[in-house]
Amino acid sequence: MRLIGLTGGIAAGKSTIGRRLAHHGAHRIDADVLAREAVAPGSPGLARVAARFGSNVVHEDGSLDRAALGAIVFGDPAALADLNAIVHPEVRRLFREHVDRAAASDPDAIVVYEVPLLVETSARDEPWDLVVVAEADVESRVARMTALRGMTEAEARQRIARQGSDAERRAVADIVIDTSGSEAETLAHADRLWERLVSLG
C-alpha cells in the first residue's frame, strides 16, 4: 500500500486532482468529510465539543450548530485551539480506520488523503510515501472562491491568509501541481501523477 498526502490552500484544486485519482482507482479519503464525521450526532467528538462549549452548540436534533460554535471560536485563539484539540485527534483516528480498511481490502492500494491543513496539523507527521501539493496563484484562488463559493473578495483573502503559505507547503512537497490553468490541464497533470504512482508500484 502507498500513502499519498494531497494538500494545497483553499480553492487550489485539490478536489479536482483527488477526484481524478479516485477515477483511476485510488482510495480517496477527504479530510473535510472526516472532520464532519468527527462531530456527527452521537459521536464522542460532538460530546466533547458540547462539554467544552455548552449545549447551545448542539441543535435539538443532535447535530452540531456550526454557526453557534463559529461565533464562539471566531476571533478567540484559545477557544479555537480547544476545538482543534478535540477535532484533530478524532479526524486522525478516523483517517487511520479508513487506511486500515483500504489496506485490508487491497494490499496494493494507493490511498490518497486529501487534507487542506497538512502542514498546519499533525498530518504532516504521517509516513507519506509522497506529498503532492496543488498550487495556484492567490488571484486565481480568490476568483474561484468568489465565483464558485459566493464569498466576497475580502472573505476569500482572509481565508487564504489564515492557512499556511505556499512556501510552507512547498517545503514538504515531493510534487507540486500548478492548477492555475484550465481544468483540463489540471486533469492532465493528475493523469500523469497517476501514471507515476502506478509505475512506483
Question: How would you describe the overall organization of this protein?
Answer:
With 201 residues, the chain is an alpha/beta fold. It has nine helices and five strands. The protein has helices at residues 14-24, 31-38, 44-53, 66-73, 77-105, 138-148, 153-162, 166-172, 183-200; strands at 2-7, 27-30, 110-114, 130-135, 175-178. The protein has a five-stranded parallel sheet, sandwiched between helices. Helix 3 packs antiparallel against helix 5 (77-105). The radius of gyration is 18 Å and the shape is globular. The protein starts with a strand and ends with a helix.
How is this fold's topology laid out?
Layout: E1 2-7, H1 14-24, E2 27-30, H2 31-38, H3 44-53, H4 66-73, H5 77-105, E3 110-114, E4 130-135, H6 138-148, H7 153-162, H8 166-172, E5 175-178, H9 183-200
Parallel strand pairs: 1-3, 1-4, 2-3, 4-5
Helix pairs in contact: 1-9, 2-5, 3-5, 6-7
Low-confidence parts lasting 5 or more residues at pLDDT below 50?
none
How much is the radius of gyration in Å?
18 Å
Indicate the mean pLDDT.
Answer: 93
The succession of helices and strands, N to C, reads: EHEHHHHEEHHHEH
Looking across the biggest beta sheet, what order are the strands in?
2-3-1-4-5
Figure out the total of helices.
9
Intertermini distance: 9 Å
* Proportion of beta-strand residues: 5-15%
Report the sheet with the most strands, covering strand number, pairing sense and barrel closure.
5 strands, parallel
Number of strands: 5
Q: Helix content range of the residues, please?
A: 55-70%
Structural class: alpha/beta
User: Any idea what the shape is?
Assistant: globular
